[in-house]
Structures are given as structure tokens and as C-alpha cells.
């Protein structure tokens, strides 16, 4: 897949959307339920297959093997895959909207050359490590330390709720790098999984996200070269501004869940009969389906507005627009998948129809990357142009 095939015009976007939908439906939809049941991580060969199609580098620089296309192109592909199989979609999400974007935008040329080609090819994966046992929504309370010692950095601490934890090859670790209080002392350093002193806890048995591993990471006096520092202390705002791109990937995953639930329901209520007529003939059903459609379309429009600002590798989305989109899409996915289960009746409660799996995943995406409650706080903060100290 060449760069022109995903970035030139609307025809190319249509082509990549169609290709993504075809691959997702034919290759990954049949695997989705089993990967969920077995909690199976996506095999390396499948990730490399996605890389060979160009899906892992859509929004990453051309000189490292990517396509340098607008972010909206990558989100389109993520949606098509998430519609059928979230674990497969996660590989595209992580490469195009995850920590690789931080390296592409804030990293050194050496870091880009060392990591981005492998990520784009699917040979390696990179995960972000922010949350800790006592620092989730309150990210600036993190205590993991990365202390510069000559030409090396020594990392000590514990990270929790790390998506792709124990599976990724390298981690973008947010750490306290100076004695400055709060966000002022936080920077980020890359830590390879095979470094001495890196270990992992047991994989979490989550309600959803079952094909996406999650595990604690322990750093016991881990030594990495100083050149692995991506952002020096004091750069926390830059890190979190870039993290807005990952939130748009998250929003897209939620949108795909809502759209899939709506589509399945539209078909079901026209085929299923009760009291001698199709379910769609009942006004209560019509009102419910209309509410589902309203919520899905609202989330889509908010996502499109937020993503439209990110055309080149230097662009960043409006934080207010991101929080509005993420909060809306996260809550929409939970609600719409729940309504879909209700309209499917007993069938909706079975694994066979896949709706319960979608509902479980919807809750996971709402928690990841900043909960709806935290997004509401950010929305008001951005609207008023001021911050709120939750500690007082």
C-alpha cells in the first residue's frame, strides 16, 4: 500500500476503507469470539500481516515506512477493524494513535529511526505506561522515578493497567525525573521489555478487552541509555497534548461498537416477529432505535470535527473537541450496546450474537485514556480556560 493510496483524495480514502472492511470481515471477524474466550493476544504473524498491508503506518512518517496520511485515514481503518474485531483493531490503534505518535512528534531522530520502522512493519509494538496503583486519573501523582546517572537513566517503580502490558516490546514510561512537584517533574523515557530489571505481574482477567493483554510492570533499578529520554522533566503538558491523539483512537473504538450494535439491531428488529408482526412495527422499538441512531451520529460528528484538525505530523487536535468526542462516544457505546441487548431479548444475552462481548468492551474503552468523569472536568476546564485543583 503506497502513500498515495491512503492520502491523495476521497477516492483513495474510500479504497482504503473498503480494503480494511474486507480484511477485517473475512480474516478477523471469524477469530474475534475465540480470541475473546481464550484471552489470546494477537499473534506476531497477524500483526506483521497488518504491517504488510500498510495499516500500521497510515499516520506515521513516510521516511520510516509510513504513509504520512491525515489522522482521519487511520481512524477510518481502526473503525472498520473495531467493527468486527477489537484485538485486531488495537494493533492499528496502538501503532497510529498510541505512543508511536509521541515518538514521531516529540522523539529524537535516533529514536524515530530505531523504533518506528519496526512498529510500522509490525515487527515490534510499543505501549504507553502512565497509570500506577495510586495514580490513575490523578496521573501527576505518579511515583515511578527515572533518574539520570551519567549516560544512563535508572528507572524504578510500578505501572498498572497497561494495555499490551507483558506483550509489548518497548514501553513509553511516564516517570518522575526531577524533584519538582506535580507535573513539573514528569518526563518520559523508553524502556525495552528485555532490559534487566523489567518484570511483569500476572495478566489481568478483565471484563472486556480480553484479546488485549493487561498487566502490571515492575522496574527494579532498570538501566537504559540516556538517549532513550523522549521528553525531559517539565514536558508533561506536551506529553498529554500529544496523548489527545490516542484519545481520538479510543473514541473511534467506541464509535465502531455503537455503529455495529445499531446495525445489528436494525436488521434484527425487521426480521424478528412478535404478536404477529416485526418488532420494528412497535412504536417503543422505533423510539429506542431512533435514540440509538441519534447517539451514534452525534459521536461520529464530534469525532470528525476533532480529527479534522490533524492533517500533518505537526498538527494536534483541539483538547476541548477531543474531550467532547471521547466522553460522548464512550458513553454512547455503553448505552447503545445495552439497548441493542435489550431489543434482542434473550438472544442479546447469549455469546452467539456477540452483543454481550461488545458491551463488555464498551466499558473498557470508557475507562481507558481518561474516564467520562475526567473528560467532563477537562471540558469545563477548556471552556473556561482554567484548571481545577482536585486536591484542595
TrEMBL record:
Cofactor entry: FAD
Stretches assigned to the Acyl-CoA dehydrogenase/oxidase C-terminal domain: 235-383
GO molecular-function terms, A-Z: acyl-CoA dehydrogenase activity; flavin adenine dinucleotide binding
Keyword Glycosyltransferase: no
Domain (Acyl-CoA oxidase/dehydrogenase middle) ranges: 127-222
Residue ranges of every copy of the Acyl-CoA dehydrogenase/oxidase N-terminal domain listed in the record: 12-123
One Pfam family named in its UniProt record: Acyl-CoA_dh_1
PROSITE patterns: ACYL_COA_DH_2
Keywords annotated in UniProt: FAD, Flavoprotein, Oxidoreductase
Entry's Gene Ontology BP terms: butyrate catabolic process; fatty acid beta-oxidation using acyl-CoA dehydrogenase
Source domain of life: Bacteria
Family, similarity comment: Belongs to the acyl-CoA dehydrogenase family.
Protein name (record): Acyl-CoA dehydrogenase
